[in-house]
Amino acid sequence: MRRLLLIGFGCIAIAGCETTRVSPEQARPVSSEDVYAFSRPSSPSDARIVFTQDAGALSCFGAGMQIFLDEKLAAETSSGESVKLYHKPGPTQLSIKNKAGCAGGDLRDLLLDLKPGYSYSVRGYRGAWDKAEPLLTSPEPFQYRK
């Protein structure tokens, strides 16, 4: 019985680090109360960043993530949510971290070279030890219609 319990806890611990990718189209939109900056384009040339957090209730107990653009808090997401952010073209630092005090609460960065009028898809997932990780994903950056 003890051995079975240890195996069960081991499986839960391993599964706890896994998240499931969610496409931006299938994700729930982030509540407007959780978007603090960069929610609207400031000029027609602004680039769009679509950030989508993976789903996974066991991973970090379903905690959300905080998204920063150039060190400014832009939005907070929860499991399976997506947010559209707008930023001027050029080099931009996107950083994310776990909202809860779970393991891996430090900032993780992704440097983007934003082109005018292009849309970028970024996935937020939990890697080793439940650390929040940003990843530029498909589709490739493309010109979007405003």
Give the topology.
Layout lengths: L1 H15 L11 E2 L17 E7 L11 E5 L2 E6 L3 E7 L2 E9 L9 E7 L3 E9 L5 E5 L5 E2 L3
Parallel strand pairs: 1-5, 2-8
Antiparallel strand pairs: 2-5, 3-4, 3-6, 6-7, 8-9, 8-10
Please describe what this structure looks like.
The chain has 146 residues and is mostly beta strands. It has one domain: Immunoglobulin-like. Helix content is 10%, strand content 40%. It has 1 helix and 10 strands; from the N terminus they run αββββββββββ. It has one helix at residues 2-16, and strands at residues 28-29, 47-53, 65-69, 72-77, 81-87, 90-98, 108-114, 118-126, 132-136, 142-143. Strands 1, 2, 5, 8, 9 and 10 form a 6-stranded mixed beta sheet that branches. Strands 4-3-6-7 form a 4-stranded antiparallel beta sheet, with no helix packed on it. A hairpin with a 5-residue loop joins strand 8 and strand 9. It is globular, with a radius of gyration of 17 Å. It starts with a helix and ends with a strand.
